[in-house]
Specification:
This protein has 385 residues and is an alpha+beta fold. The chain is built from eight helices and 26 strands. Helix 1 packs parallel to helix 2 and helix 7 crosses helix 8. The longest helix has 16 residues.
Length: 385
Amino acid sequence: MGSVHMKTARSTLPDPGQVAEDLVAQLGSFRPKLVTLFAERKRDQRALNRALRERLPAGTRLLGATTNGEIDNAGMHTGSVVLGALGGDFEVGIGIGRDLHLDAIRAGGQAVRHACDQLGVRQSDLDPKRHLGLVIDDGFQNKKEELLLGVLEKNQSLVLAGGGAADCESLGGSAEIHVDGEVTSDAALVAIFYTTAPWAALRSHAYTPTGKSLTVTKVDDSGYIALEIDGRPAAARYAELLGIDPRELGFGNARGFAMYPTGLRVGHEYFMRSPFQPMPDGSIQFVNLLAEDTELEIMKLGDAAEITRQFFVDELPRRVKNPSALLLFQCGARAMLSAHNSTLGDLSRSFTHAPPSAGLNCMFEIYCGFHINTTLTVLAFGRAP
């Protein structure tokens, strides 16, 4: 059995060259095969990329994204650059798919094909026990579901985790991704790992089912607007199920969508697929594509900080032997809700229970073939005893 190791570094210095020098110095003699770079959006990403690559060992691959906050196993941060350096028993291919807004299915296929070509393996021959995928997209294009169709078209058994490159703006910002020496937007990267080390794609959210369900019975042409729920105007029916006024439904309201979102039940699991806001015409805008006659469960928010701590302390070691390296993709809404509930410090401290980690507050999350939200998705590696 193999091992994957991670060493992390974080810097808040302002100049790209100073940041790169600081980050690489923190790595010491560690020579990574892959570096992940998660940086606040307002920084000059191209200058940062160039400065870092000038200082990394030759042959080290690099991928990364702009953020709505950076994460390591010291907690959650803002205004910083977090670097995760991975070494050990793995190989990685990284592909990029372009023009996401024009044809996301094609972009997904293009990215995974290039990644597989670098590994010398056909997509259809990927081994679900040894190969796994990481996906980072320009989150503001809102094309995850189509993108995933392209990534998984030739091998639906490929396990994926990831999320969207982000900005400090919740819905109106812009984002960029890093692939080796290139920084771009309107694109997605797919990294395919081959490893003999323990690994898993995991997710954690703070919601439990209420026992109430609803059926989306009419959707507009965009696929994101629920016109009717249970055969009635969507906002009025949702509010009735919660026992509140429709004006209280908005994601920022204490008794609305943030506290009581929806989840899609898949077997014994729930995948969060939340409504975002009631519209003036009585419909509801969702952040995921909808299909008519889909049944969704109404969920209730719990203690996100404690559930996240339990995830790192209990679930992670059960799923991955000797966890030693995590890539983290946390929905920016989790941080927003924790700040609203005055528990942001508690949520940040929950990450101190994790092994070496690098990640970001992202623009919606990816788990296997699903676009989800208000969730922490994790790509975890372990080490041999």
